[in-house]
Amino acid sequence: MEKPFALIIEDERDIAALFRYVIDMAGYRTELAFHGKEAIERLSNSQPDLVVLDLNLPGVSGHEILQLIRKDKRISHTKVIVITAHAHMASGLSVEPDLIMFKPVSVEQLSNLIDRLHLSDKSIKATRIQENPLDETTGLYKQSFFINRLNFALNQSIETKTYLFAVLLIKLDIKDQPKHQNRESVIREISQSFIGSIRPTDTIALFEQDKIYMLVENIINKNIPIMIANRLEKKLVENIVNIGSVIQIPIRIGILLCDSGYKNHDEILRDAKNALHLAEVQGEEYSKYYYQVSVRK
User: Fold this and answer.
1) How many CA atoms are closer than 13 Å to the CA of 112, on its beta-carbon side?
2) pLDDT tens-digit series, residues 7-32
3) Considering the domain 143-293 in this protein, what is its CATH number?
4) Which of 88, 279, 284, 291 sits most deeply, having the most CB atoms within 10 A of its CB?
5) CATH topology match: 5-117 vs 143-293
């Protein structure tokens, strides 16, 4: 049975990722729109069962998008949860959403609201999320969140057969650090330097010491993971003075391009580790990347 579809319209990437995490686990197929015009384009050729809508958007306001939804007969009955940090914006709406939430929004709040809307199909396996997927110390996603996104990408690949995704495993060899900084704060600064080099829909997590996992979803060009790896190292070199720690350059990155040949996430993580190991043993005179492609048919 096809999963219900939720469109998340939110320009703040971390908030959008949090919503996607909760709604995915509730049994939905989710898509993100980070700009008002992008949201309108997506709504013009789809019929979502649920829209999570931020009011303060670039391009076209959330208020305008809500008006569009209620006027369009195709989607006028779509459940809409409005998100805003400004009470006056919510009170000034000319048309009513189904629910209104005020930022900051917790995982539990969003889970409760989805339950109240009775949106989950009883035949769909849903998991209720109670914990924040972000690690408060490093600012990176926890292992559970990363595995959830990885399973989603694998399921998409199995369903469509042409959907490609990649896992980048990055080893940071931190040789030294300032006395006023602990290891977690160094890793946090490093990871924040990576944010501008990836797409809003990609996921960065840390669940092994000094190893950062990155999931790159919906790849249309097989060279994209290598391009991202190059940008990551460049960004790290640019920020290394600000970070203040001694980090081995070049960093080692294992790159695993994935398709529907994998059975589960454990196989993917195993091969990502193998890719990193091969990148490490090649030595300084070789490429810092080992590029492994899934060819399991």
Assistant:
1) 8
2) 999 998 878 887 887 887 777 888 99
3) 3.30.70.270
4) 279
5) no
Provide the whole-model pTM. Answer: 0.70
Rounded to a whole number, what is the distance in angstroms from the first to the last CA of the chain? Answer: 25
Record the tokens describing residue 192, joined without a space.
């924040």
**Tokens read off for 167:** 């896992």
Q: How many CA atoms lie within 13 A of 169 on its CB side?
A: 23
* Region for residue 109 given its phi and psi (left: phi exceeds 0; alpha: psi -120 to 50; beta: otherwise): alpha
Sorted by where each begins, the domain ranges of the chain are 5-117, 143-293
Give the pLDDT score at 89: 82
- 289 neighbors 253 (Cβ within 8 angstroms): yes
* CA dihedral sign, ordered 152, 153, 158, 163: positive
The CA distances from residue 113 to 12, 19, 218, 293, in Å, are 20, 12, 29, 41
Exposure letters 24-33 (e unless 16+ CB within 10 A, then b): bbbbbbbbbb
The SS3 assignment for 256 reads strand
What are the beta bridge partners of residue 206? 212
Q: For domain 5-117, which architecture applies?
A: 3-Layer(aba) Sandwich (3.40)
CB 265 within 8 Å of CB 151:
yes
Number of H helices, E strands in the chain: 9, 12
CA distance 36 to 68: 12
